Amino acid sequence: MTKILFADKLDSCVERWRSAGMTVIGPVQRTNSSMYDAVKSASELDLNLVLADRSIKELFFPQSEPMLRYNITKSEINTSEFLPPSGPRIIFGARACDASGLAIDDPLFGWDYKDEYWFQRRNESVIVTIACTKADEFCMCTSLKLAPDSTKGSDILLRPLENNKGWQVEELTDRGREAFKKVADLLQEGSDPAAATVSVPEKFDADACAEWLKNPENFNSHFWKEISLRCIGCGSCTYLCPTCHCFDIQDEGGSFEGIRRKNWDSCSFALFTMHTSGHNPRSTQSARWRQRIMHKFNYFPGKFSANSCSGCGRCTRECPVDMGITETLQEISKLSQ
Amino acid sequence: MSIEQLYRTRAKELLSSGEVKMVIGYGAGSNKERRRPLFITSAEECDKLVLDSACISNLSGYLLTEGLLSDEKRVAVFLRPEGVRALNVLAAEAQLDTAQIVIIGFDSPKGELKALEGSSVEEFTALITALKEITPETAGEEQLAKIEKMSPEERFLFWQEEFSKCIKCYACRQACPMCYCRRCIVDSNQPQWVNTSSHTLGNFEWNIVRAFHLSGRCVECGNCDRACPVNIPLRLINRKMAEEVLNSFNHFAGTSKTQEPVLASFKKDDSETFIL
Amino acid sequence: MSEPFEPKITAFVCTYCTYAGADLAGTSRLKYAPNVRIIRLPCTGRISPMFILKALQKGADGILISGCHPGDCHFTHGNYHARRRWMVFRALLAFTGIPEERIKYSWISAAEGLKFADLINSITEDIRKLGPFDQYHKLIEETQAPASL
Amino acid sequence: MSKIGVFICHCGENIGAKVDCTRLASTLGDHPGVASSIEYKYFCSDPGQESVKKAIRDNNLTGVVVAACSPRMHEATFRKACAEAGLNPYMCEIANIREQCSWVHNDNDKATDKAIDIVRSMVEKVKRNNNLQPIEVPVTRRALVIGGGIAGIQAALDIANAGQEVVLVEREPSLGGHMAQLSETFPTLDCSQCIMTPRMVEAAQHPKIRLLTYAEIESVDGYIGNFQVKVRLKARYVNKSTCTGCGECITKCPSKKISSEFDCGIGKRTAIYTPFAQAVPNIPVIDKNSCTYFKNGKCKICVKTCPLDCIDFEMQDEFEDLEIGAIVVATGFQVQNNAMYGEYGFGKYQDVITGLQFERLASASGPTGGKVQRPSDGKEPETVVFIQCAGSRDPSKGVKYCSKICCMYTAKHAMLYAHKVHGGKSKIFYMDIRAAGKGYDEFTRRAIEEDEAGYLRGRVSKVWLENGKLMVRGVDTLLGKPVEIAADMVVLATAMVAQPDAKEFAKTIGIGYDEYGFFNEAHLKLRPVESSTAGIFLAGACQSPKDIPDSVAQASASASKVLALFSKEKLEREPVIAVNNESTCAGCWGCVLACPYGAIEKKDIMDRSGKLIKRVASVNPGLCQGCGTCVTFCRSNSIDLAGFTEKQIFAEVMGL
Q1: pTM
Q2: d(CA B274, CA C89)
Q3: ipTM of the complex, rounded to two decimals
Q4: Nearest chain D Cα to A71, which residue?
């Protein structure tokens, strides 16, 4: 017997959480594009998506976050800080890759300086992940040693029932248990079997790739140029990626008042490494693409013992020229044999 | 022989005869619906070329890849009529020399693939001129008409909703053959005319500036619209602006390689009904 | 009873005609509404669409762009270039829902002090009737607010 | 860190009574970057300027904002004061709180609020001003005068007499222009050639003037002080250096029936000819289109006749490149072709002639030796009808403007006719008599009162031939009656129009023109002799219809402009010009097309080995006039305008 959340009770759960002061967030459709966003009722949620177009990271690391307001007077500069919105939230219907992505980035946002904007949101969020029963050709979590039902980064894992009427509930963390206590009476004990999680074929050998990338000789390989010939240098892969975390600090406003903001930035952009002098150490798109792969599968694991990729596949799924991590690592896998 | 076969053979001939150093075409993509740009430099690889109605993207922007044309050797490229128009605009703006480009032309009206005669831009003049005449009626989008009927407030709300999604990934810019600036205005920060933050205000500014910079230059290949990962209907703005320059100045971008840019020229009797 | 709404209007004018016309309104002691702030440029050809966007960002409810009559441009045809640019930019703004009524264009010569004064009055009245540009002001406020999630 | 000084002028009561200057000064005094904010009754006064200078020195100011009257009043004054205090003058800006604030608003509070915005915005601009240095352009001290009529000759002589070199280019074989064709001139009735030919000779013999006749301008490049001009020297087929002008060839030339351009078709000339007897230089040319040898390959009588072997049928056009510092355009006018007035019978009846043809008839050197005779039969006309405004002031068929000289020359024609044909009757149909000018109204009165010119106010509707008489039907609007006159000759006071190739020519040399083809002055009132292109000046009827005194006056004015330009070795120009950032320029050439002055050139950027890396736009500081049209066009924001930079304007907007 396991705890079961029946789909017809979900609306009541949402209401309950909301009345307990929690912000309920989940995958929704917004004018031709899907994303995670706050909802008022369960009916707004779209839980049938393979994956929302936009990743979960923007709930923790918004694309543009105001940090402080400044005001320059004749004698002094006044500043007042912006704090991230506080209050408990529950993210219902995350996918395992997205939830894992958050866990992957945790050490990054805390290794030297604890980024309050990230951690306050992390500490106040309950991640309810639904194991995947379907996938598309871009999914690649298994190649990253994750799975459609990975628990990494999640507080609750829901497994869809075979009859599609609800989910088996696995409580993974105290924070998850706490949130589900609020709806305990809406859950039922049952023995309805769970649907099989989708099988996602392995597409490359991440370990072999890591070895190849570590070999300094390969840094200057022709491979990089060939694999990135068609890259147009946009930031869609980085901005949709649940683990890409680069940002830029911008002061925005007039001459004597304004707001300092933390904005997403992308290593795909030529401007990313442009020096004031005009010199650009990564002057070509191939150097930028190499950086992205190296960062995710060589430098990041070297520092934080995990690949900076959770296999969601968005990079390829949304790429205007059908590039992405999968193809590159597949080719590296071939080279490393 | 299928058009695909025919063009593979042409590509092989072009490469093996040394007439071109590279063929830019389409290859198979990661699923059935997708085609990806392919850069071929040897005759043996030509069998990788794919040509069908799913080959949609305008490849002309790749011709501006730094250094590609600087050796004065020729490059062949698969282009739809919009792609040829793009070549004309790029030539008119001195970004390339069309003598270096061998066009492998095709189109797929109503999903049916057909080959287009000619390999130089001049040979497409009649076709493009004909497009100028038919475009206004046939390319009218229902959604465009709907937006035009809205009140200004409704239109603002419509675009506010769309632009609020923008994540400033600049895929629209990068995918566009006309966005060849060495430094985009949004990347110029002294002064920062366009807010780089992707709040809705900044997104409004970016999208307005992008559309303005493309006015009279856009050939409506749709690269930007397809590239947008959050599906902002950029084609609608581009369509509207193309209509505007056609109606106001009888300008249809890319009719010839010597066409005067519509915003760097003027007529003394240009309309000015709006000026008090 | 609340105060009547006082619109904020930014004007971009060329120095040879409209700025001189505004000076003439002054030397003629014509009276007009104090809502307009003028920015002086050498020529209408120098007036970039970016100026309009930044004036809106600074909270303008209305904008005036003005220069020499066709044929009178000190720089022979800066105003002809400007006219084309405005035509296109105006259509673009209108399409994105920035009302045409808020952005006015005029030709005012150095002799038309009266026209200048009258125009400022009528524009101020027009914009006052339209009310504050709330839709845009909300976007500006949003940039000053903390992240929503 | 900026240290801006703000100086708030009360302008007596002008500002002080409306704007609360104390509140203004204290608000700005609290503004970041403002080191000093003071008010004073009259900053433009000597003590006022001294206090600005003192503040600059005491506070080490980096910029100055004077809140006062319009910059059009005192910008120069305060910039000069700043320079005297050691501050770059371009670090000073004026905030206009008088003409555009205190004088135009009723409400003191609102005027003060507005003044605060105006000054603050200007402070923000000045913080981003840059030190600018006047641009120095070297000047080639050699003038080019295009056109050898009275205007061109006058300009050339004035410049040459001041000691500067002149190249005088005339496209006809001789100097002289239209004035050489005239009989007598109003209002003094002195003989045109008597006063004109000495000037022609003087110009031709002047050591500082190089005369190039039968020559045309091919191209003009460069800019003020530094023009490169290519001149086409048309083949005369007569060797200039050996010909003595003996005229033997002309006498013997068998083609004698060619209509003479100089005599407006009522006289004849030969195929080898000089336009008129007093031609300067007195060297004939061969009219290739009429010469029997050129047409049939046979003749060469002139070759045989010439005692000095000057004739050379193999001669080709030659080209000469000139380095020129300033150009005076004096290309003159043409008379309108009256063929569109079918009702006047011009072209149909030989005795309906233009005013200029009448000049040739009345001229002592003309085809009739100065006798007024009908072209049809050589008879002396007993009655002559003059029709004024034949083309002028007629928007439907002719030109909209007034040709200005016709009233006067028609009066003169009536007088000449009265003097030459005793008892002859003249009738003049006119719309208005415009006789503004020294001695002009007296002149027309004389025509009426002493020479019995019969003025009829009204238009002519038809001219037809009946029993050997030209019947003229018109209306006398003063009497309100139709009039019919049986005339022996009808003279049309034809409109002055621009040269047929004026527009083409304007494009070649790079100046503006109006709808009629007359060249545009930089400012109709204040810069009437300068074209919109720096270094190119206008003289005479190429700008608008003019009589001789006006043409001469404008020519002298142009000459003085040229001499002022030549008075220094280097030319100083306002540094408000465009500058391109070559590293970000994409080379799309939009700016090149948009520039009204052709001031933007394409520049090749090479690497060390001389290989072309890219081509970018480059602004020629000599040509740029600082309008900034290019800046707005530039999508990548690569071009900027000094004095009105993107940063400055951004700051102004953000400072509001």
Answers
A1: 0.81
A2: 12
A3: 0.94
A4: D32
